[in-house]
Amino acid sequence: SAVISQKPSRDICQRGTSLTIQCQVDSQVTMMFWYRQQPGQSLTLIATANQGSEATYESGFVIDKFPISRPNLTFSTLTVSNMSPEDSSIYLCSVADPGQGSGANVLTFGAGSRLTVL
Amino acid sequence: EDKVVQSPLSLVVHEGDTVTLNCSYEVTNFRSLLWYKQEKKAPTFLFMLTSSGIEKKSGRLSSILDKKELFSILNITATQTGDSAVYLCAVERSSNYKLTFGKGTLLTVNP
């Protein structure tokens, strides 16, 4: 199955600043997603990172707040802009992985980036 | 709006016990239901279920789906302390790989 590296693994940020999270996959993948997991909550899909075009955002998430880049089939970044304490969360990168689930495209997740905004 | 409800939200058992975790769902154009185990941060894949009544099994873990009643269960037999984790249920609609997750069940297995 795909191996996903995310960095930073954790960070403490000041209110009003921005932070970029990187996601590197060890193989080319078509579908790449960014999820958020707020404390005590379920994972929520932020957007689909599309290679060569703008990301597709879910309801409640906008490009100005969460700009995403996907320059190639193995790499993506998510920026959390103008952070507030409400953005404190774990942010996870995931890919549709044909290596899992007996050939079905199961999502494989990175280890996540835990952001704390003061 | 797609919805996934897991129960119980938390569970404490002793080693050797058997546990059953529940997941009910409402989703348009259901494609699959997935179970993940989340120990620290990265959820790790356990099972994908697409057909009713067919049990998936891996060691002490097993899962089954009921598409008529819109629920799934995850069973863990002879629990071990290493089974302590949050177990997440998610549903996928229409082959687009986007998952809707439940809040998870926090399982604590005490020695």
Can you walk me through this structure?
The complex is a heterodimer of chains A (118) and B (111). Chain A has 118 residues and is mostly beta strands. Chain A contains no helices and eleven strands. In chain A, strands 2, 4, 5, 6, 9, 10 and 11 form a seven-stranded mixed beta sheet that branches. In chain A, a hairpin with an 8-residue loop joins strand 9 and strand 10. Chain A starts with a strand and ends with a strand. The model of chain A has no long low-confidence stretch (mean pLDDT 91). Chain B is built from no helices and eleven strands. In chain B, strands 2, 4, 5, 9, 10 and 11 form a six-stranded mixed beta sheet that branches. A five-stranded antiparallel beta sheet of chain B has the order 1-3-8-7-6, with no helix packed on it. The mean pLDDT of chain B is 93. Chains A and B meet through strand 5, strand 9 and strand 10 of A and strand 4, strand 5 and strand 10 of B.
How many helix segments of chain B?
0
N- to C-terminal distance of chain A: 36 Å
Termini separation of chain B:
41 Å
Main sheet specs of chain B:
6 strands, mixed
Kindly state the percentage of residues in helix of chain A.
Answer: under 10%
Q: Residue ranges of chain B: pLDDT <50 for 5 or more in a row?
A: none
- Give unreliable regions of chain A as ranges: none
| Percent of residues in beta strands of chain A | over 45%
General form of chain B: globular
Structural class of chain B: mainly beta
Quaternary organisation: heterodimer
Averaging pLDDT over every residue of chain B, what do you get?
A: 93
Task: Summarize the amount of helix of chain B as a percent range.
Answer: under 10%
- Overall strand count of chain B: 11
Q: Sheet bearing the most strands of chain A, described? A: 7 strands, mixed
For the secondary structure, the number of strands of chain A is 11
Question: SSE order of chain B in H/E notation?
Answer: EEEEEEEEEEE
- The overall average pLDDT of chain A, rounded, is 91
**Compute the gyration radius of chain A: what is it?**
14 Å
